[in-house]
Automatic annotation (TrEMBL):
CDD domains with a match to the protein in the record: WHTH_GntR
Organism per entry: Nocardia colli
Keyword ATP-binding: no
Protein name: GntR family transcriptional regulator
PANTHER family: GNTR-FAMILY TRANSCRIPTIONAL REGULATOR, MANNOSYL-D-GLYCERATE TRANSPORT/METABOLISM SYSTEM REPRESSOR MNGR-RELATED
Ranges of residues in domain HTH gntR-type: 15-83
Length: 248
């Protein structure tokens, strides 16, 4: 007599509910069932259909917003983006920020560009650039040392970049609210190397220590780099977890 076989759970069943909801909506968008400009179900509708709390439905929609797949229109609703942000990346990495993480702006200043920053931003060597350095983590450990680089002209156009304070919604949302700059696509890459003395000090690492460096460039439609982000992560810590459709 054969032993009773227990059913194997579907992959989606092990995912958090908000990721199952966002994945379902993303699949409908990718299949063309929800075309660019089409309204997607509201938080209230998603909560009722999936039998979840409103914050869970809101988190699902926010996941799609962060991926550039949908956008909110004040007083109207949430719609499929007309021109979704294209992420040229393989494999797919997600957000490095864990829920409940704190962020401290360590420095915001105009400085001389390191050579690799000048090359990426397309400015001459030795040029002045705007730099913002931030440290994130939790009560017990620093999790990321992040540095954002911008052209020096933004010091006048976007003066809050020079304040050592957190920008609600992030630097990109602020830049797009005060300038005509618009991000068309993003490109990222990852490499491992030894930590610098400054990185060891902020991340509490011994010498020598390997770190993971995640570099992200935000490009305008013509290809010019609007912003360069470099995120440095300590060893022995899992980062960049993301769920995505096999049809993506």
């Amino acid at each position: 007599m054969c032993a009773e076989r227990r059913p194997v759970p579907e992959f989606d069943e092990v995912l958090p509910k908000y990721l199952r909801i966002s994945g379902y909506l993303r699949d409908r968008i990718e299949r063309g069932e929800l075309a660019p400009g089409a309204e997607v179900p509201s938080e209230r509708e998603l909560a009722a259909h999936w039998k979840v709390a409103r914050p869970t439905a809101a988190k699902a929609l926010n996941t799609l917003r962060q991926q550039g797949i949908v956008e909110s229109r004040r007083g109207s609703g949430t719609y499929v983006s007309d021109g979704p942000v294209v992420r040229e990346r393989a494999p797919h990495y997600g957000s490095a920020y864990a829920e409940g993480a704190t962020e401290t702006v360590l420095e915001a200043a105009v400085v001389t560009a390191p050579d690799h920053v000048a090359e990426t931003l397309g400015v001459p060597r030795g040029s002045a650039v705007l730099m913002r350095k931030r440290l994130t983590g939790n009560e017990t450990r620093a999790g990321e040392l992040a540095t954002s680089w911008f052209g020096s002209e933004l010091a006048e156009l976007a003066p809050r970049l020079l304040r050592a304070e957190r920008l609600a919604g992030g630097t990109l949302r602020y830049l797009e609210s005060v300038t005509a700059l618009r991000v068309s696509y993003l490109r990222d890459r990852v490499a491992a190397r030894l930590a610098t003395a400054d990185e060891r000090r902020h991340l509490g690492l011994a010498r020598p220590a390997a770190v993971l460096v995640y570099q992200l460039t935000l490009h305008a439609a013509g290809g010019a780099v609007i912003q360069l982000d470099e995120m440095v992560h300590p060893p022995a810590k899992w980062m960049f977890q993301k769920e995505y459709s096999s049809r993506s």
